Amino acid sequence: MLLRIDHVGIACHNLNEKIEFYESVFGLTVVSREVNEEQGVREAMLHVADGDQGASYVQLLEPLHPDTAVGKFLAKRGEGVHHIGYGVADITKALAEISAKGVRLVDERPRHGSMGASIAFLHPKDIGGVLTELVETSRR
Ligand code: V0V
Ligand code: CO
């Protein structure tokens, strides 16, 4: 069901500072920057690698307000890994299969994600404390 790691989402206080850090330390390149009001984030995708099943990225996330998913995470836990995003071929089918196994869905239906992807989150409390995101994308 999971095709690849699409991205690792990392929560930070200052997006521009973290972009510069990842560029200078790892030589990564920003391929997309977006504000996603629904998700409460300002985010950047930095390309890591290309594979048979598509590309993988680091996603840097800065909250738009304290009262957002990433804002609350930062207040509670500080900066660090926020979620893992896995590529899937058919997100609606994957959600139905995962839900049938008793894992709580944060999103019953797909939402708009970075670079035109369809995304949906699974509840971290049912996945060993890991906030997990499914990503269906046409990008390669
Ligand atoms: C919260 N918890 C986490 C967590 N966030 N555990 C692991 N990883 C995380 N990232 C834990 C938290 O410590 C609490 O456990 C419990 O879940 C409830 O947390 P809360 O602070 O009370 O917050 P809630 O319940 O209001 O919200 C938690 C959820 C929320 C996961 C439901 O963060 C959410 O809806 N996330 C999905 C949307 C999202 O994260 N969007 C930003 C990325 P204890 O302390 O009580 O044990 S947007 C994105 O990735 C995009 C656009 C993209 O990829 O394209
Ligand atoms: Co994400």
UniProtKB/TrEMBL annotation:
Metal-binding listed as a keyword: yes
Transmembrane segments: none
GO biological process assignments: L-methylmalonyl-CoA metabolic process
UniProt entry keywords in alphabetical sequence: Metal-binding
Chain ranges of the VOC domain: 4-137
GO molecular function, one term: metal ion binding
Domain of life: Bacteria
SUPFAM superfamilies, alphabetized: Glyoxalase/Bleomycin resistance protein/Dihydroxybiphenyl dioxygenase
InterPro entries with a match to the protein in the record: Glyas_Bleomycin-R_OHBP_Dase, MeMalonyl-CoA_epimerase, MMCE/EMCE_epimerase, VOC_core
A Pfam family this chain is assigned to: Glyoxalase_4
Keyword Metal-binding: yes
PROSITE patterns attached to this UniProt entry: VOC
CDD domains, per the entry: MMCE
Family per record: Belongs to the methylmalonyl-CoA epimerase family.
PANTHER family reported for this sequence: METHYLMALONYL-COA EPIMERASE, METHYLMALONYL-COA EPIMERASE, MITOCHONDRIAL
Name of this chain's protein: Methylmalonyl-CoA epimerase
Organism expressing this protein natively: Planotetraspora thailandica
